[in-house]
Amino acid sequence: MHVPSTVAARLPIASDMDLTWIRQYVRQVTAELGFGLVQQTKLVTAASELARNALVHGGGGEMEVTQVARGRVRGLRLVFSDSGPGIADTELALSDGYTSGGGLGLGLGGARRLVHEFTLDSRPGQGTTVTITAWASEPPAPRKAV
Amino acid sequence: MTRPLPAAAGTHVPVLTLDDVLLVTVQRNLDDRAAEWLRQDIARAVTESTATGVVIDVSGVEVVDSFLGRVLADIAPTVKLLAAQTVLAGIRPAVAVTLVELGLTLPGLRTALHIEQALRLVREPCGAHDDTNPRQGGV
C-alpha cells in the first residue's frame, strides 16, 4: 500500500560542501522519521557515496528527497541524478572493485548493500540516475527454506 | 532546516602531542578536503616530532564512507614508513556495521575501543598483539 508522496527537497550536488550538507540533511530527516541509529548511518553513508559519484563522475547533479510510506512504515527515497557521461555496463559498475579511477570501487555496489531498494538507470551519453529507498523498520523478509 | 555557513569547511584536524604519542581527534563533520589534509598533517607531525605512535580518535565521527575510509586505511602504512605505529580509537557501533556492509573492513588498521586503550596499545611493540584481542590489554 503506497501513500501518495511528494518531493520534500532538491539539493544540489556541485561541490564537497554540498556532500557535507547532504550527509547532515539525510541524517536529520531520517532521525525525524524514526530511523534507528544504524539505519540512519547506512542511508547517510549510501547518500554520501552516490552524491560523490554524481559529483566526481557525473560532473555534478542533484539529490531529490521524497518521504514515502507503506502502511505505517515510513521511509525515505533519494534520487541522485547527473547528466554526465553515463555508464555503459551497469552490472560491471555495480561489482565490487570496479572503478573508473581513483576510488576503491565500492561506491555503487556498497551503496546498494546499505539500502532496502536500489535502482540504477544509466546509458552512455545520457547521464545516470540512482534511486534508493530505505525504511524506518526492516520490511518483512520473504521466508526462505533452510 | 537551515544549511550551515560554509566557513567551517576544510578545517585542519588538531594534532596533540602526548609524550611519545600524537593524539589526533577527528571532528564530527569532516569534509573531503579536510580528510585529504588529515594524512598529510599526520605525516608531517610524525616527522617533526619524536613520536613513535599515532592515536586517531574517531569517536566523534558519525559517518565513514569509502572516501574517508580509504583516507583512514592509508594513514597506518604512511605512518609506518615514518617509523611509528597507528591505532584507530572509538569507531562507533553504527559506523562499524555500515563499514562492513559497505565492504570496507580496514584490515591493516589496529583499533581500540577508546583513547585509553589505544594509548596502551600504541606503545606496545608492533605485532605483539596482532592476533589477540586488544581488550585483553598487556596480557
From TrEMBL, chain A:
Q: Which InterPro entries match?
A: HATPase_C_sf (IPR036890), HATPase_dom (IPR003594)
Q: Which Gene3D superfamilies match?
A: Histidine kinase-like ATPase, C-terminal domain
UniProt superkingdom = Bacteria
List residues of the Histidine kinase/HSP90-like ATPase domain.
38-138
Which protein, by its recorded name, is this?
Answer: Anti-sigma regulatory factor
From TrEMBL, chain B:
Q: Which residues form the STAS domain?
A: 11-122
Looking up SUPFAM superfamilies in the UniProt record yields: SpoIIaa-like
Sorted alphabetically, which Gene3D superfamilies does this protein's record hold? STAS domain
What is the recorded name of this protein? STAS domain-containing protein
Q: In the record, what lineage is assigned to the organism producing the protein?
A: Bacteria, Bacillati, Actinomycetota, Actinomycetes, Kitasatosporales
